[in-house]
Amino acid sequence: MKLKPLTINDKVVKFPIIQGGMGIRISLNKLTSACMNSGIIATISAAQPGFLNKNFRKDPIGENKKELKKEINKARANSKDGILGVNLMHAGTNFPDYASFLAKQDIDFIVSGAGLPLDLPEYLEGSNVKGAFIISSGRAAKILLRSWDRRYQYMPAFIVCEGPLAGGHLGFSKEQMASGDYDSLEKIVIDTKEVVQDYEKKYNVKIPIIAGGGIHDGHDMAKMIKVGADGVQIATRFIATYECDVSESYKQMIIDSKKEDIVTVASPAGLPGRAVRNFLTKSLEKHNLELHYCVDCLKTCKKKDIPYCITEQLGNSTSGDKNGLIFTGAKAYLIKKMDYIDNIVTEIIRDCKKDLKLNGGLI
């Protein structure tokens, strides 16, 4: 069994870990800079980074682009050779506009989920930025690979398999989450590995398969490597860190959470989401929340009879409001203290290598 470095966009990263993109305003330049400098791949979230700007409600697209460019440039200045990407939800309004804009920035990849980004390669033509996608089943991977092959003769830089223990929006229905009728992360990885084989042969490329959702430590990582994953995506574990861009109150809510505090909530996106139980989640058990404004953030939001505005509630919480929406992964309750990114990465790799019975370096 080997633990190999990852190669993305012709760059090699020391440890096969991708820091997952978290929004609103959770994974920006401070977190991503620390991750790149710790030897892992970093991801900025494109979800409303301009939320705090004065002109955001009048011009959300303009303010978001302005902040994205600023955050990307700051992160790149701190790590010129690191692997940096942006997570762009396909369910977001104006996806083509954002994708075309990001294709011109100093990043290595755009990774897209929250729907099937069948059209992502269209906006990357002539760009050095590579495309990747997030899926929750081997079937979804098959659909996307077939579409990208036929329409664009284009293969993803990597594929993230996201399982049922992920934070934020989940790729499973409310009924599936309630009944437990969904594939495990291990099965999603195995199925996706099988699906990519023909395309790897056809294009003579390696398509790394990344396991995400509920990856908390090196033991979780080793399990995924053993079933065939080339690396893992970790997000929630990096929230309660000194380098994370989110508010201190958000970090403390993660640290203070207990297992019973991790719940699923309805989302205006039409999917269940995982969050920390607080005033908002308790209120939603009784009634919908009043909407104060709309910036038309989601294609899938009906804007009428929705439980709450996701931009308002996520933006409020990550800016310091304890009563906002605290999106998180299923294992957030295991986080008991603030820490540094470098310490966490070192611990994860150490424990993963022990489980894989690796005594030397990465190979």
Overview of the structural elements:
This protein has helices spanning 29-37, 60-78, 95-102, 138-152, 174-179, 185-203, 218-226, 248-256, 279-284, 310-318, 341-355; strands spanning 6-8, 11-13, 17-19, 42-45, 84-87, 109-112, 130-135, 159-162, 168-169, 209-212, 231-234, 262-266, 272-276. The radius of gyration is 19 Å and the shape is globular. The strands form three sheets. It has an eight-stranded parallel sheet. Strands 9-13-12 form a three-stranded antiparallel sheet, with no helix packed on it. Strands 1-2 form a two-stranded antiparallel sheet. It is an alpha/beta fold. The chain has eleven helices and 13 strands. It folds into two domains: 6-246 and 337-355, Aldolase class I (TIM Barrel); 250-318, no CATH class.
